[in-house]
Amino acid sequence: MRASADGDPADSADPAAPAARLDLRAPLLAIGAWAGALTGLAVAARGAALAGLALGGVVLAACAAAVVRSRARGRVSATTGPAISAAPGITATTAVAVVAVAATVLLIAVLRSEDVGRGPVADLAARRASASLRLVVTDDPHRVTGRFGDIVVVRAQVRTLEADRRRWRVRAPVVVLGDAAWSGVAVGSTVEVRGRLAPADGDAAALVDPRGPPQVVAAPDVWWRVSAHVRAALRASVADRPPEQAGLVPALVDGDDASVPQDLAADFRTTGLTHLLAVSGTNLTLLLAAMLTLARLIGVRGRWSLLLGALTIAAFVVLARTEPSVLRAAVMGAVALVAFGPDARRRGPRALGVAIVVLLLLDPRLAVSAGFALSVLATAGILLLAPAWCEALGRWLPRWVAEAIAVPVAAQVACTPIVAALSGQVSLVAVGANLLVAPVVGPATVIGLAGGLVQLVWPWAGGLLGTLASWCVAWIVVVARHGADLPMAALDWRSGPAALTVLVLVCGAVAVAGPRLVSTRVRGAAVALALVVVVLVRPPTPGWPPSGWVLVACDVGQGDGLVLRGDRPGSAVVVDVGPDPRAIDRCLGELGIRRIELLVLTHFHADHVDGLAGAVDGRAVGGILVTTLLDPPGAVDDVEAIAAADAIPLHTLTGGQHWRTDGIDFTSMWPQPGPPHPGPGDGSTANNASVVLLAVTRGLRVLLTGDLEPDGQAQLARATPGLRVDVLKVPHHGSRYQDLGWLASLQARVAVISVGADNDYGHPAASTVEALEGDGTLVFRTDRDGAVAITQRDGVATAVTRP
To answer: What is the pLDDT of residue 312?
Structure first.
């Protein structure tokens, strides 16, 4: 093979040449940097910072000594040499460089962690002390539904701190957990507040629980004000469009996904389109390509075009916010541009390796960021895997079609294990969905941004451009909705080490064998047909549902979704619908439920009501019963809107009511009688207003308790002395807050805990499970057992889990 003047192999027509020309030095440096960051973070987390600093210093010193000795003996060449070579000097140089980079990133990770985990902010947080703080807001406020109502999360940096009659000047990141008054604070604002500090995980020195509203003492700098005006103008340009389109255009342009409906976001996850809702390298690449194309048309060339590209990147970062995900996207977008053009197979991996090293030097915590891993894997997949797929498909398809298929396939194969670990599912329609939306993503992004900019000076024209962008995203919505509704749009996948190892091996096999499988027209068509059949035909699950089932606790994640079988085929009473419309829809579909005689929502927390759209979709619903406490109000509005859209009667339910529906006798035991009323939004009040039902069906007494907490349980125990049941749905996902004496008094043979795997609340509590089992109750939980079906044999309750 012929080498070029700079020591790199020259291009060749030999098909095997690209593999030989692959330069592994930069990727090896990236791997070393990643390993160093992980080691440094682990060392710092275990409180061994001094040992980590010593280790990094010793390694760096050893690397320096090795280089000096090697140069002194003349064994190391100062030239770059061939990209892949067996020459000992090059191998030694690369090895030393990898170790040196790893040690450097390790040192930075330890120092950065020490900087965050030490100092007055962290010390006061450890004591949960109160302090007065001056903060600079660094990210947009985000409203989050917590255990006890909605909170507004604001990231900020502490500049001054006063406590214990002392004052410090610091620069420490914190997270403020505020109320609605914080939702209007602009990025870049300087605010003063007094609050209680608490320890924080991750990259924050403390959590701040503010006492009172923020006092803005300084407005944002001019670039933040301009960014805010552009973002507001972008939203205004699509304000009159349907809600899904109006929420999606800003998300696509600058990552502003606050207005994207939750059920649409769930469909995006199922169809592998979630990357469109976040700032990614794709956004920047599209905008840069449009800007540089426009520059060429008006005659901008050479260094001026490079300057324009740099300014575009800077403007994009400010527009989308200077958080780590945006900086990562900017760098990955730049990598994509570097990889374009001739010699891309060689330049791309180099650029990616350098980008990874630079990013980890700037922020070692990216090493444990799922978003960073996904960006790297997607880019690496496109650079390393896509060429083989493109070459194989190009033998019988037009080149542009082969490229259009190869890119999403490569990215999906590379990212699937991480996506499965995060979401618990493997999308089978992701490649097809990305192919279908690809033609409109670019126009929607560029036109959407243009609409926001024009809106600032000419609202009518901005609205026109916004409408054009919304028409583009309307197609994306159609693809996401219909793709997610396919019978086998996604496979549920466990996130344990064994399951993920199997998935990694499967993806590796697909990456290696896939190009050969699609290299001819016949094999390619066969693979495509097989995929279509797999997606459209749901295979039967042997033994599920079990014959004569009485109750099924659906596996809906961290929430409740319970189904009582009615007398008529295909009918049921549903109690709560979980947080995910798709999960409850899938469960009802597997049970063959076509009509819901009654749908009871025990209370309005998201983990009990957000799946409502999926439960009612395509099914007749006789009515919806809800508790009298209308809290939180946003969820109440959503339930009322869905009920009104499908003309479903909506009624409140209190204790003391009796009725019979579809062969099931019901007694509502809680809440106490009274008219509908708003709540304080503190979480526990809503839990204690949960509807509690006693259902008698097929000889079994089943108690469904919602999220009733100890206070409510104690009141219910006093109101219903001597209550005995066969089956208990354990309150509040088995949390440790239980009246264990009351639970024991029920003498249930079987208890079901509806709970999500690896949830953040510690549900179910070991103390609750052990207490129930100690009383002789058989305990089943959906996080480990999957869906749980209750049957009865000779009048005795038994349980069958989904195989």
So the answer is: 72
